[in-house]
Structures are given as C-alpha cells and as structure tokens.
Design brief:
The protein is of the alpha/beta class and 323 residues long. It contains 9 helices and 17 strands. It is 37% helix and 22% strand.
Length: 323
C-alpha cells in the first residue's frame, strides 16, 4: 500500500443501525445488506481524501451468541464474554472489510481494509463492576426481562426502548494494539478496530493480560473506546455514526431543539443538565468530550450513515468543537 500519512485522519464509529436496520431485519443476509449500505458512505468519505479507522458496535450479535449458548448448553460448552467479543470482532470485521474492499474495487480505488482483533485494558477495581449498566443483546419486554433476572442477570429499562440485560462497563484505559493500528493507517490501510469497544482485559501482577470472565465479565462502551483511540492517535475528526441525523436537547419533548454546532463547554453543560440519556446519546457525548479535551485541534461530528457526506459538507449533522 502507498503511504497516506499526509491525509487527514478520522475515526468513524458505526452504531448498531449500521449493522441491523430494525428488529424485522436481523438475519445474516439482512446484516450484509446493512453493512454494504453503510460502507458505501464510508467509501465516499475515503474517496474525498480521508484516512479512516472504523470502529463498530456488537450488542445485538453478542445477544444472539448468548441466546445460542442458552439453547445449546445441554449439548456443548458455553462461551465466555471475552471470547464472544473476539468472535464478533472477527465476524463483523470480516463483513466490513469485505464490503469496503468490494466498494473500493467498484470505484477503482487503490485501498484495502484490514480488521484487527483489539484488546483494551481496564482496571479490575473499576466501579463499573459493582454497578452494571451496559446493555447487551436485544431488547425484551418486561416479562422476558424478569425471566433473565431470575437466571441471575441484572436487567434495566433502556431509554424507553424496552428492557435489556446489563453488565459491567468499565472505563477503557489502554488499547493494546495501538501501535499496530497506527502503523497500518500510516501504510495506507483502512483499519477496522476496537470492535464492540474492544475485548476487556486485565493486567495481572506479572504484567500478563487476562480476559474479564466469570463474575468479572464485562463489555466496554464502543463510543468510549473509540474516543480513547481517537485521542491516542490524535485524529483530526471523530465521527460518530448513529441512528439520528443530529443531536437534540429536550429530545422527544415539545421543546425539542436540534443542534447544528456545539462548543465543548456547551456539550459539557447540556450533558450535566441531563439532556443525553445513558442508554442512547449519553455515551456518545461522553466520548466526544473526552476526545476533545485531549485533542485541541480535533472535531467531533455526530450524524447517521446516509448523511455522512452531507454532514462533511456542513449541510447537516451536529459538530462539537473546542472553543
């Protein structure tokens, strides 16, 4: 690959809507359709002259594997969450890489995508282990959620969208494969990494890495890990692709207000006022704040996949910038 290190670099964090459009389209063929649609927008951004690192969520896919575990537990061993995270990084990374490479071929672009299974170090004493908060799997009605609860899961209602199982969501501290990701980007590869927030791992007293398993099972918020990666690499743009065209305050209320542009100080104030729910926009704003605090030249853009190119033209989306 030809070096593209002089091009501006962005991280594009794609959300669950980029992989599963809705609850009626969850099969593998449906996921392929969604991925191929999303990657056309990502390829368009690369065609405009960007280096890209792509990160992604994996919540529904983790839920599917957990359900398969439950249904097959009388026949085969179950799979711990760290391996489920690795499984989904591999499968979703494969889908994104293939779809992007095919799009590059169609557009006659001399680029290639590579997926990196990524580990992220967390603190074993993180308070998140005592306060499970991260939803995994699909949404359920309350009766189904109570059945999960009787099986030992913690369940919570999630921003009016239904009930979900929740587990620990520790803060990401260090990305193990950071140098490899940086080198691949410098060589001109489009890199898929930190899938599902990365595989959460501890460092033991010998400095060895071990997955978070058993009672310490966890998942890392994808946006928080993507923000950490964006800050560590010092990228020019942190683009969070989600299910809405813009960010709003007073969301779904009579006085709802869509936001075109926010300063870092305004984002902090609105976050402190409770405008962004923890099950939806909250982690995205948290990630944007953390990234901008560490990256004075950086900018964050939040929009949906189909509007990425319009948002880059300043026509839509919500921009968050340092003062």
């Amino acid at each position: 690959m030809t070096s593209t290190s002089r091009l501006p670099t962005a991280i594009v964090a794609v959300g669950g809507n980029s992989l599963i459009a809705d609850t009626k389209h969850q099969k593998v063929d449906d996921q392929w359709d969604a991925v191929r649609t999303t990657t056309t927008h990502i390829a368009g951004m690369i065609e405009r002259g960007w280096n890209l690192i792509v990160t992604h969520g994996n919540g529904p896919q983790v839920g599917f594997i957990l359900r398969r575990n439950e249904l097959a537990s009388h026949e085969v061993h179950t799979t711990p969450l760290d391996l489920i995270g690795a499984d989904t990084q591999g499968s979703i990374g494969y889908m994104l890489a293939q779809a992007l490479d095919n799009e590059f071929h169609r557009r006659q672009m001399q680029r290639q995508c590579v997926a990196v299974v990524t580990q992220v170090v967390v603190d074993a004493n993180d308070p998140g282990f005592k306060n499970p908060s991260k939803g995994i799997g699909g949404f359920a009605d309350e009766a189904s959620a109570r059945q999960f609860e009787s099986d030992g899961w913690v369940v919570q209602e999630d921003a009016g969208r239904g009930w979900r199982r929740v587990i620990a969501s520790p803060i990401p501290r260090r990305i193990v494969e950071l140098d490899a990701i940086r080198s691949l980007v410098d060589m001109g590869y489009v890199v898929v990494s930190v899938g599902g927030g990365g595989i959460p791992v501890f460092e033991n007293q010998k400095g060895e890495l071990r997955g978070c398993v058993g009672a310490m099972g966890a998942v890392i918020d994808k946006d928080r890990a993507s923000g950490l990666l964006a800050a560590e690499l010092g990228v020019d743009l942190f683009l969070i692709s989600t299910g809405v065209e813009k960010v709003a305050i007073n969301f779904n209320k009579p006085n709802q207000q869509w936001l075109d542009r926010l300063t870092l100080a305004e984002a902090k104030r609105y976050y402190a006022e409770g405008h962004f729910l923890k099950g939806s926009m909250g982690p995205k704003i948290e990630a944007a704040i953390e990234y901008l605090e560490k990256t004075p030249h950086g900018q964050t853009l939040i929009t949906n996949p189909e509007n990425i190119e319009r948002a880059l033209n300043g026509e839509t989306g919500t921009w968050i910038v340092n003062e």
